Amino acid sequence: MFDTLYEWFWWDKIWLPANLTWDDLLDREGRVYAKASHLYVTVPYAFAFLFIRYLFERWIATPLAISAGIRQRVHLKAEDNPILELYYTTQCRNPAQADVDGLSKKSSLSVRQVERWFRRRRSQDRPGVLKKFREASWRFVFYLSAFIGGIAALYDKEWFYDTREVWTGFPKQSMLESQYWYYILEMSFYGSLLFSIAFDVKRKDFKEQIIHHLATLVLLSFSWCVNYIRIGTLVMLIHDASDVLMESAKLFNYAKWEKACKTLFVLFAIVFMVTRLIIFPFWLIHCTWVYPIHHYPAFFGYYFFNVMLVVLLCLHIFWAYLILCMIRKFMFGNLTRDERSDNEEEEEEESSSTEDEVVGQHKLGNGLAVDEKGDKNGCFGCLSPPENMCQSKTVY
Questions:
Q1: Residues 6 or more apart from 309 whose CB is under 8 A from it?
Q2: Helix/strand/coil for 23
Q3: What are phi and psi of 76, to 5 degrees?
Q4: Cα–Cα distance for residue pair 272/324, rounded to 1 Å
Q5: Maximal C-alpha separation, the chain
Q6: Residue in 278, 386, 390, 381 with CA at minimum distance from that of residue 335
Q7: How far is CA 128 from the centre of its chain?
Q8: pLDDT tens digits for range 204-242
Q9: In angstroms, rounded to a whole number, what is the distance separating the alpha carbons of residues 209 and 339?
Q10: Fewest Cβ atoms nearer than 10 Å: which of 98, 153, 321, 336?
Q11: Per-residue b/e over 199-230, b at no fewer than 16 CB within 10 Å?
Q12: Cα separation of 209 and 203, whole Å?
């Protein structure tokens, strides 16, 4: 049964053009082709990325945040209460009024005390500025390295300047060593993002991030197996271009460097619109949709690949809408939060700040001066350009 499914899944006519088989992609005559078995290495590499990220955030990002004056709020800790904790972890983080009344009776606390307990408990789980700075700095370093590496690998290739060359000689295009490492490292990085997404800062586009990461890995895997590597490297490069600016803008935002933050955000918005909404659909999707049928008849893999690219384009349009909303508020001078932040969390932040003011204490946490009152953290308030655009990187 398993062997039958395996053979059906890898049926030549599904993934390859007519009159081609997997035997045509075997190494011969000095040509080296990508193989599905090569992708197994991305799993241990993804965990290696997680380990490197841990070391980077601990020994580089944190001291950098301290030097930039990042202040991490220490939230008031909710008192130990097994009844409320059980409800919080198994039922709901934000109970309705009827449930609050019931919990008040069970826990022998007043309604106001129960409401305060849930506010404080939610505050404990809410990520602080330091956590956001660490994540953004890690992604910035990778995207910058990947973009520079991509330019170095592609600047002397014909298909970098003329997309028609992507299909010249297809599928008998030998894989280069630079292409191998570009793909493997990108896939490993996105695999690490998928593994860590449950622990990273969550936004309203959490589901879109998951869809993006899955679409990225599926596209990269498919293009690797059927030797669509040339177009794959181009797609990765144009996504890396805007991601570098996105993460750097967030870093300066968290550090409250207003002028640098505004400048980088504007540059990010321009580069994002150009690369994701112009170059991506009108050059790269055009390249994968129009040119291949000049060389061979359309087949299932051809449609599958293009549909997945359109899925990414839809995510780009969604994130472009959020960026335009921030630009509109930026131009009129009333941008106070990230468009992807939950309204409920913003309201809780204000409520929590008021409660902290009543306590009126300033504590020292993790070697950082910590202000219980907190602030809006950054030149645009809570501005953070969309996290993941190919979490973005959208890369494909």
A1: 219, 235, 284, 285, 288, 396
A2: helix
A3: -65, 130
A4: 11
A5: 80
A6: 381
A7: 18
A8: 667 777 887 888 888 899 999 888 999 999 999 999 999
A9: 15
A10: 98
A11: ebbbbebbebbbebbebbbebbebbbbbbbbb
A12: 9
The dihedral through the CA atoms of 299, 305, 311, 317 has a sign that is: negative
Residue spans of alpha helices (H) in the chain: 2-9, 12-15, 42-56, 62-67, 82-90, 97-107, 111-125, 129-154, 177-196, 206-225, 229-254, 258-274, 286-289, 300-332, 343-359
Question: Is-contact 235 216, C-beta < 8 A?
Answer: no
Alpha carbon distance 246, 326 (integer Å):
13
Q: Are 382 and 336 in contact (CB under 8 A)?
A: yes
> What are the Cα distances from residue 356, in Å, to 35, 70, 159, 348?
58, 19, 59, 12
Tokens of 220: 């990269």
Token pair in block for residue 26:
């075997």
The radius of gyration of the chain from alpha carbons, rounded to an integer in Å, stands at 24
Partners of 382 in the β-ladder: 337
The single-letter code of the amino acid at 376 is K
Distance CA 240, CA 248 (A): 13
What's the pLDDT score for residue 366?
41
Three-class secondary structure of residue 175 per DSSP = coil
Rounded to the nearest 10°, the torsion over CA 161, 166, 168, 171 is 160
